[in-house]
Amino acid sequence: MFMRSVSKIARITRSYSTSSILPNKYVAQRALTFPGQGSQFIGMGRDLYDNFTAAKQIFEHVDETLGYKFSETIFSGDYKSLTDTENAQPAIVTVGVAAIAALEQISGCKIKDLVSYTLGHSVGEYTALIVSKSLSLSDGIKLVKLRGKAMKESINGIDSTMIAIITRNNSINEIVTSANSTNEQIQNSIKNNDKKFNKNDLVNVATINMSTQVTLSGTKSAVNLAIQNLNETNLSFRTAVLPVGAPFHCDLLLPASSQLKQALDETTFAEMQIPIIANYTGMPIKSHADIKSLLVSQTCSTVKWLDSLSYLHNTAGITRWMCAGPSPVIAGMIKKEIPKSITRLLTNSKDIYNCLHVLESQKQQ
Fold it and tell me: Which residues are marked as active site?
């Protein structure tokens, strides 16, 4: 059944050319998103590799850039190795870029002609930069590989964690305030030589994803204290430990931020062909000259994902979302936060052809 539907839709590609123009109203309403770490799984992207020449070329380019068959780690490696942040980051970026290459191949359109904004969660911001042609694929992969390695080295010997806090009501401001208060309490205790805490102990708000979800990063003892303090409030919430290889977006990664800055200073960025919403500000990046400092700041700072979605929906008028990459996690966030939004997944060949069908329908209107 699936192959018959794919064959039927695939016939559309023969009449869909680079001269195809979508109605401006659809392009103006659409944004493209990419996920971050935690979205990885063994075998992700293999369907794209097997069914689209352009996607296969992306994987091959990454293999060549890294100097070994990195695609084998993605397709058939072990999960522990893939989750290692040094591997997870380039793997997730590769799959996101491959999905867009596949869509461009069968539609005959450039992605810049299909969306008006793009953004990525955490390392997904690098995917957005590559797809917007501000950053080359080779440079992007080298950067995120180094980013992952530097992050791993930053927490060597430190017992750390990253935990999501999910509420049923809009109480994230109280959670953020409580977490910040806990960290202040810990830092004051360390200054006063309180033996209860290690000199590395800290807890930071890593991401504000939705009006009902934030994540905390830091040392296990500090994060656990933050959760304990929250339990003493009247807030109703649940927690989930995230399957990631480091406590992202916290001050434990300051050494990684310094290493990344050196690499970014040696990297060339071009003007963006698609406007990008920055994690650090939740607002559009004004110029490619700002990208390096934003990426450095993003490493240890809160990802303002909720602000990013709010800007796109409330200010830019975005109601349609393409969610590319290995996982539908971003689409889930958007549906919960902006219920009337229309989301289209770009995770496998079925999604790609379904999206093509929608684009063809819109072109004919």
Answer: 122, 249
Query: Mind listing the pLDDT tens digit for each residue in 78-119?
Result: 999 999 999 999 999 999 999 999 999 999 999 999 999 999
Q: How many CB atoms lie within 10 A of CB 255?
A: 15
Measured CA to CA, the distance from residue 192 to residue 136 in angstroms comes to 48
**CA distance linking residue 131 with residue 186, whole number of Å:** 41
- What strands lie across the sheet with 203-210, from one edge to the other? 203-210, 213-219, 160-167, 237-241
The tokens 């902006």 sit on which residue? 338
Query: Which residues lie below 8 Å from residue 338, measured CB to CB, with a gap of 6+?
Result: 309, 313, 319
Domains of the chain: 30-154+250-364 (3.40.366.10), 160-242 (3.30.70.250)
User: pLDDT tens digits for 320-355?
Assistant: 999 999 999 999 999 999 999 999 999 999 999 999
Q: Which amino acid is at 116?
A: S
